[in-house]
Specification:
The chain is of the alpha/beta class and 300 residues long. The chain is 62% helix and 12% strand. The model has no long low-confidence stretch (mean pLDDT 80).
């Protein structure tokens, strides 16, 4: 059995761990709130941009972004994870979603783009073809400039007819407690993918907007040129929104993990404190007994 001095050292060590996890919990809370606020700010902009594009539906068939008539059989996958662990099941859930998709589509020829180290390590372990890794270029700082680099790279690869489909795997932020791993077909754009984006990310009723009376626009120089300029802007914004959702999920997962670690440390420290008090009391009782015995022996 450990002595009371050893137990005291363990209590001190565990309390220090509790302080560290509490600090990490607070940091993750602040970062999560920042990501949430940024996501809410962008939702109205993306919604209005989508609503404007809906009024030019007749021209969508001419756009390469809406075309599925591609000879390539390859699929481009983007996996979004974190650079670090200590975030509960955040990374594991995203990787499980990838594995589920692989099992469900065994005939697809896949190539990967990864964001952050855990995704690139996963691709390396599973012996898949990694064409780009942006892990070193990004930090926790959420800026549109960096995400636009990735979005432009994806769009260029798709427009070169290298891939017939682009799929993004990430964790969708529902609330502080719940984050859902998702696979989203990013390209080509379809009515179904836009409807899912409206309902799951923007929280709007797509059918209501779709059935609304079309607005009349006077466009110069032409509808086609407007769409060719607007769709890349829309894709950049949609990908940025996905990244924000992913970041909010990561910080929320880490916040919960650190809270659980802090609570467990405090609970364990309480148990050790009880053991310490018992061991200390036993040691004091033993010392008193020895003193009494020594005094009695001196009397004899």
């Amino acid at each position: 059995m450990a002595t009371w001095k050893e137990i005291k050292r363990r209590i001190k060590s565990i309390k220090n761990t509790s302080k560290i996890t509490k600090a990490m919990e607070l940091i993750s809370t602040v970062k999560m709130k920042k990501a949430q606020d940024l996501a809410l700010e962008k939702k109205e902009y993306i919604r209005w941009l989508l609503e404007v594009l809906m009024n030019f539906n007749s021209n969508f068939s001419d756009s390469r972004y809406f075309s599925s008539n591609i000879k390539s059989t390859k699929t481009l996958w983007i996996i979004i994870t974190s650079n670090k662990w200590l975030c509960w099941g955040y990374n594991i859930n995203a990787m499980k979603k990838v594995n589920e998709y692989v099992k469900a589509n065994p005939n697809e020829q896949m190539e990967f783009i990864t964001l952050w180290k855990r995704a690139s390590q996963f691709v390396a372990r599973t012996w898949n073809h990694l064409i780009a890794d942006f892990s070193e270029n990004f930090t926790d700082e959420i800026t549109f400039y960096f995400w636009k680099q990735v979005s432009n790279f994806i769009n260029e690869k798709f427009l070169e007819n290298n891939y017939w489909k682009v799929v993004v795997f990430y964790n969708h932020f529902i609330n502080t407690i719940r984050q859902v791993p998702m696979q989203r077909v990013f390209l080509p754009l379809t009515d179904k993918s836009i409807e899912e984006y409206f309902s799951t990310v923007l929280w709007y009723d797509y059918k209501y907007i779709r059935d609304d009376k079309p607005k009349s626009y006077t466009v110069e120089p032409s509808n086609k040129e407007l769409i060719d300029e607007a769709i890349p802007m829309l894709l950049d914004s949609m990908f940025f929104d996905i990244m924000i959702e992913s970041k909010a999920s990561e910080h929320s997962s880490r916040m919960i993990a650190m809270k659980n670690a802090k609570d467990s440390a405090n609970k364990f420290a309480s148990k050790l404190t009880l053991q310490y008090n018992k061991a200390r009391q036993a040691a004091i009782t033993k010392e008193i007994s020895e003193i009494v015995s020594w005094v009695e022996s001196m009397k004899d």
